[in-house]
Amino acid sequence: MRRRLICGNWKLNLGPASAAALAGFLRERLAEHGDVEIAVFPTALSVPGVLAALAGSDIGVGIQEVAAVPSGALTGANSAVMAREAGCRWMLAGHSERRQFFAETDEGVRDKIRAGLAAGLRPVACVGETLAQRQAGEVQSVIRRQLDKALEGLSPAQTSDMALAYEPVWAIGTGVNATPEQAQEVHAFVRDWLRSRFSPEVAQGVRILYGGSVNAGNASKLLGCPDIDGALVGGASLQVGAFADIVSAACAGR
Length: 254
Ligand code: PEP
Known about the structure:
Elements: E1 5-9, H1 16-29, E2 37-41, H2 47-53, E3 60-63, H3 80-86, E4 90-93, H4 96-101, H5 106-119, E5 122-127, H6 131-135, H7 139-150, H8 156-160, E6 163-166, H9 180-197, H10 200-205, E7 207-211, H11 219-223, E8 230-233, H12 240-251
Parallel strand pairs: 1-2, 1-8, 2-3, 3-4, 4-5, 5-6, 6-7, 7-8
Helix pairs in contact: 1-2, 1-12, 5-7, 7-9
The chain binds phosphoenolpyruvate (PEP).
């Protein structure tokens, strides 16, 4: 059985002091979280404070964005190697906000995933369609294209170190989540893709998270679906109570 994974994407919120404070509250509130794995993704400037606040706890910390190369003349970028050195275990890749606002391409996502894996980070690779693509009946072709490119050239072992996140663009930050049926349909498609691209073992092992307006009220139903192994949570991850309730929903059985 795949271990549930709940990730909090804090986006461009919470400077060093408030991020460390939230991490401290989470640490206290989530002292007991069953077999659910948890990771938070603060903004890069807040990573050191969050790592310090979580030192000795089993809540992981990730970086939201890395460059495709470990170092060099890339003003403003983050390095996967440096993030790992700082203590990060995880990274995000392919988030729709990066694709939309920073012109991230499928090839760029692939190169960043490779850089992260080489540095010893575990990528959470995001895929998802826009509303227009859903309305045009292109959900599967969009997801397939994004997966084909993002995981191009990876070995089964590298893929098994990752998690995937299905994040329909129309559900992110909108308060409109995919229904459990809509999400499960895409998650099953992603698992089938893993099966045919790699093997039944890889498909059985890789966790596929749902992201898009997950909150304390809808988490149980979404996490009750057979192919939804966790959640990537934006807005609700900034509230201790809401995030803790989502973790509790993940603790409950399928
Ligand atoms: C996200 O940032 O990945 C996300 C899903 O945001 P929200 O939960 O706010 O929709």
